[in-house]
Amino acid sequence: MDFSDSPEERVYREKVHAWLSANASPAVAEQDLSVVADADNVPRAKEWQARKWAAGYAALTIAKEYGGGGEAPIKQVIYEQEEAKFDVARGTLDIGLGICIPTVVVWGSDAQRDRYVKKALSGEEVWCQLFSEPSGGSDLAALRTRAVRDGERWIVNGQKVWTSGAHFADYGLLLARTDPAAPKHKGITAFIVNMKAAGVEVRPIRTMAGSAEFNEVFFSDVSIPDSDRLGPPGQGWQVGLSTLMHERMKAGKGFGLAGWKKMLDIARNARIDGAPALKDSRVRERIADNWAQEQALRLLSFRAQTALSQGGIPGPEQSISKLVDGTLAQQAAAFMLDLVGEPAVYAAGSDSPLRSVYSSWMWAAATRIAGGSDEILRNVIAERVLGLPTDARPDKNTPFNEL
Amino acid sequence: MDFSDSPEERVYREKVHAWLSANASPAVAEQDLSVVADADNVPRAKEWQARKWAAGYAALTIAKEYGGGGEAPIKQVIYEQEEAKFDVARGTLDIGLGICIPTVVVWGSDAQRDRYVKKALSGEEVWCQLFSEPSGGSDLAALRTRAVRDGERWIVNGQKVWTSGAHFADYGLLLARTDPAAPKHKGITAFIVNMKAAGVEVRPIRTMAGSAEFNEVFFSDVSIPDSDRLGPPGQGWQVGLSTLMHERMKAGKGFGLAGWKKMLDIARNARIDGAPALKDSRVRERIADNWAQEQALRLLSFRAQTALSQGGIPGPEQSISKLVDGTLAQQAAAFMLDLVGEPAVYAAGSDSPLRSVYSSWMWAAATRIAGGSDEILRNVIAERVLGLPTDARPDKNTPFNEL
Amino acid sequence: MNFDFSDDQKALGEQLRRALDKASPLGETRRVMMEREPYSRAAWTVLAEAGALGAAIPEAYGGVGAGPLEVCIAAYELGFALASTAYASSFQCSSALLRWGSDLQKEKWLPALASGAAIGTVAFSENGAGIEASAISTVVREGKLYGAKQAVLDAMSADVAVVSALQDGKPLLCVVDLHSVGVTRVPHDCIDPTRPSGDLVFEDAPCSVLQNTGFSSAQEILNLGAVVLAFEQIGAAERALFMARDYALVRKAFGQQIGAYQGIKHKLADMYLKIETARVHAYWGAWAISTNAAELPLAAAGARVMATEALDSAAKENVQVHGGIGFTWEHDCHLFYKRSRAYALALGPALRWKEQIMRQLERANVS
Amino acid sequence: MNFDFSDDQKALGEQLRRALDKASPLGETRRVMMEREPYSRAAWTVLAEAGALGAAIPEAYGGVGAGPLEVCIAAYELGFALASTAYASSFQCSSALLRWGSDLQKEKWLPALASGAAIGTVAFSENGAGIEASAISTVVREGKLYGAKQAVLDAMSADVAVVSALQDGKPLLCVVDLHSVGVTRVPHDCIDPTRPSGDLVFEDAPCSVLQNTGFSSAQEILNLGAVVLAFEQIGAAERALFMARDYALVRKAFGQQIGAYQGIKHKLADMYLKIETARVHAYWGAWAISTNAAELPLAAAGARVMATEALDSAAKENVQVHGGIGFTWEHDCHLFYKRSRAYALALGPALRWKEQIMRQLERANVS
Description:
- The complex is a heterotetramer, with two copies of chain A and two copies of chain C.
- Chain A is an alpha+beta fold.
- Chain A is built from eleven helices and ten strands.
- Helix content of chain A is 42%, strand content 14%.
- In chain A, the strands form three sheets. Chain A has a four-stranded mixed beta sheet. Chain A has a four-stranded antiparallel beta sheet with strand order 2-3-7-6, with no helix packed on it. Chain A has a two-stranded antiparallel sheet with strand order 9-10.
- In chain A, strand 9 and strand 10 (275-276) form a beta hairpin.
- Chain C is of the alpha+beta class.
- Chain C has helices at residues 7-23, 26-34, 41-49, 68-81, 87-100, 103-115, 215-250, 262-290, 296-322, 333-345, 350-364; strands at 120-123, 139-141, 144-153, 160-167, 170-177, 183-187, 197-206, 208-209, 252-253, 256-257.
- The chains are: A alpha+beta, C alpha+beta.
- Chains in contact: A-B, A-C, A-D, B-C, B-D, C-D.
């Protein structure tokens, strides 16, 4: 049991670090996560990706023949740990490079791989993922966007939602219903859609936090050539599932929500009933509790990293972490505001020292919903890890158009 | 809004109080609830009931023609509030007088009422309730005890469980399955069973707390004359449901588990890390939290009492109270033991000052299960109060013998 | 035993429910937020017309002379409507005037507060330190006020404020016309823009001292506010619960209503549980105000703590039940979410009120 | 990154799982309770034969010379078996001897502790006040011990104890042969009769002082115990979770397995969540012991707090999932329920360990 790299990992880490040192400046602070989905960030992100491409770091786990690094997932983890120490544009291209393109590699034809993979890896083209729909939510397979075959093309109508980066993406990985007479999981087909095509309309979604990181995407008679169909007709659900596997091959990271350090900072300055808050054992206990949970998440990521390092597949660490993190951060943020008391109502001010706590309080609510709600994740753990029966699913084998 | 009696209620309270003062001594301490189901307590309980019977207080809400008081439920509440101030044997006959006999009054024939009601009200005969079964649990209607008709009698075989007082009861209110080919709720019939009959065997159940308040009751070819069938064949589920209504017409009382006062007592003597526990704001918060919940339960009982006082039916106050009380008491007891620290491991000693906390810690676990588990009560609130859909019940309309 | 509101009081509630539903639907609250108004004139007018503003003000001063129970009923309906009004603040202000005001002070302000012509508030918190006596640096000198109060709920809409200050080193309350020269209101971006707070800065501001007041007077007025705000919190919590329930009945996932899953059913039952246990505390608080009971400090703190938890839980789980749509600006869930925290902070956090409970329990239970 | 036990260590765990399953099923733990024995000889023999008792004792003293990671693995299996043994206590005792014992003291006790011929424990708590220095009134005078220790885990089975005491007013640790004249063991009815504690009373009892020890030595030994006991707690919690899961798969209500209801599924998922988050803390604690890391006080407290919560939750919800049968004496649920609280109290309650976490965080995070 030790926390150090294997000899091979250490060599790789040193190599990556040396290259990063030569090509980027050290990070001065945590990157502001709110810029990730900001269109203004795209040129810088593309420029950095092009430089990674030139150096062979464009997509470490994709096979070399398609332009990737052909490395084991642990190398990706090491690269990202090192990259996080530098001031580069991160995050903006993650969905494309981490989810869409690996899926194209697995499911695409040779022609599709030739056409799309390298242009994405080199930072030339940006991708987004078009899965979620308003009527779907947790029940992704309930999607209603229709694609109807018309000779050598498909005509798409419908609506997607919560699409990050749709406003600057060039291509999208789309799931659409092609056979409404089949049961819900069986009538879906995957496509590559040109986001600049006629009939594609992107509208920003404003969140309760006031910002607009996400989009709705409307399709009105959008034409997709059959050559941009990804995988066989009716196999779209399997294509979608395979993206989850790419997600899983990571070591997990936090959501950047305010935690025990911020709480300790606040407690050092706050007073409760005239006494220093740091002497109030309720506050002390709360900080200790928060640390214990946050530390558990950090240690869980070490467990996932250990699995990758041994060539294995991480367990349910990510599901556990997300379940813990959302609720914890939501409660912690509320507590931090309470700790400050009445003046904390000003936390919404852009120059408030509590602004990050206020943001955390809202984004924690989103963390409990996005990418599998708390309720869905508890079900997943109960069913897949503990082997409990699945919920009754009355719609499972019924033709979609009879639901 | 006021907490005082109506003029009529006040007169009644004074009358009851005067009678009690003349017939009993004031209570010196809370009655030890563990003696309620103790056979040794029966003679004293019967003697007290006989005295109440003679004075007209035997069963206040039962109609006068059957020997009851013919009073509104609020009078019962007032009587019990006053009686609690005196040192009398309470609780032991409650199941018979509060549940079984009112059910006999509603569902019984004239002959049955004549035979059974007065003898119970006068304290001569004691009753128990034979509903629960090992395979049933929350799903009461899944009961398997069989009663097969044989001419003018029924032959009963099967097993009941968690029967309080079965070891000293003279009669029992029994639910048994008489038509296994009917759906589960429709094939049940209610009976009056003589607990001294051949084939009835009572075995005590030892609980985790070490005591034996409850029993298993085994029926082996027990013969019940058809004249002791209660209500029509196949209507047993309705008979069972009607007992719930009698339960509901009460104002609710706590379960006697250790609460904030005990916590305050303990905190006054304990030390944490060398400082008085009462100065630790975690302890102070915990006591305040516990008080707030306990006070809510007290106030909820006032709400139920208000409904009865106005001639109405209480709402879900009892379900809420039980849900709150079990979890609260379980956590509170664990906290009290923690507060004392290492020496609290001796709490199991019969002379330990923490013995009541130790008992509370165990009985709270039972409170969360008995008479509707936490999960069932949440369902009840969600379905009956909030109008949410019932759970899927695949067994509802299937013949019992095909389940 | 009559632990309930009277039929007349309930009728007032129903009347307000109907009127607010019309005049102050959630769209009105959203409009207040979008147009950055300090409060909803429409909701205020409803209260004025129903006599709810003067409910606890004697007829001699233009009020209805009913009592605090009517105030609580109205607050509950305002919470249910999630209306944007300074109702609790104004009640606190008029209560202070009624208790400690001279005839002159009463005559000057109570009729206007009763009719709704004036909005009142109270300003106790400063230096980021809550209301504790040692934090007060605002001073009264020769009838003028100097200093600054922070995070004053309804500072942007109020016409008159009862302010805690020191005079000759001793704490007291005074009343200030907020339109006077020497009073500056400083707006801030608030967690809940539909119920904005602001700073009040006094520099040479004319004020008039309330007689026989001290530090405990502020706490007394806070206790009244805690009960009334608890009714608002419970009303809002119940509305959030109903929203979640209604959504759970129509939204489907995996072939059935999400409200058919125990994950959702039990969550909603828990929300209900918190609301009902808070409700009885608030009722008890209302009784304690109306009878001026010695239990008021305990009852107010109990109502405050329980109602804060009830709204916190209802508002956040309402977002959760709604899923993604509940996180959007367009949907109304966040109005409740933001209100929940704004009300948890106004009058001071539960951390402080729990300590008030504990002190009362120790006093009542001297070993 | 290798945040895991080695294959050899895992193999030791599997070997112990099989052996304990045979020698110390739950029936053996129940027998210990019914026959009021102080521990399970059968389980102790398994540990001795597997070399687990001497795992962290050098070969020179008859041990295996493996290390504390093997001790943690064994503790986890003991927890899973809910065995009745003084394993953690004995490890604490031998650790103190290894750290501060003279050659003579080591030679006298370590071989016996390594072979299982002797059982060790530590006795720090007295005066109902935990282990704090100010509570110590036991004194060493001229090689004799006077005083009383309270709630000593395994007091009834141990042969030797490391005891905290004052000598010339200064705290230190000393070692006492519990079979000596002058030592009295006082039995008590304990929450968990399968892991009984007792008082140790010393009157003129011969003892031998451990060199260079002070009050912090007791805390150091407690930290070791916290990590090892955390592994026991997590093992027991996992067993309780499996019991609940297995019951949820066979018990039916309303026509389906109760494990098909989200009310049960989500409860089990939450139990699992607590166990897994505690498990990584315990692993970190094991690493900290094995490397003598500066993080040990933090890691030990983290493991202690999280593992206590995991077992509390698993043991009590296991009863809940079982329903009525889980409340009976005949069923095994209560063995876990009682163990959960006994282990929460042994080594001191979470209240104290959380304060230890906070002090470490403040030290590490000086602003």
